[in-house]
Amino acid sequence: MSPESQSGEVSARSKRADAVRNQQTLLAAAAEVFVTSGVDAPIREIAARAGVGMGTIYRHFPTRADLVVAVYRHQVEACADAGPNLLDSAGSPLAALRQWVDLFVDFLVTKHGLANALQSDSSGFEALHAYFLDRLVPVCEQLLDAAVDAGEVRPGTHAYELMRGIGNLCIGRDSDPRYDPRRLVELLLQGLQRPQSS
Question: Helix crossing, 64-89 with 3-37: angle to 10°?
Answer without folding.
Answer: 90
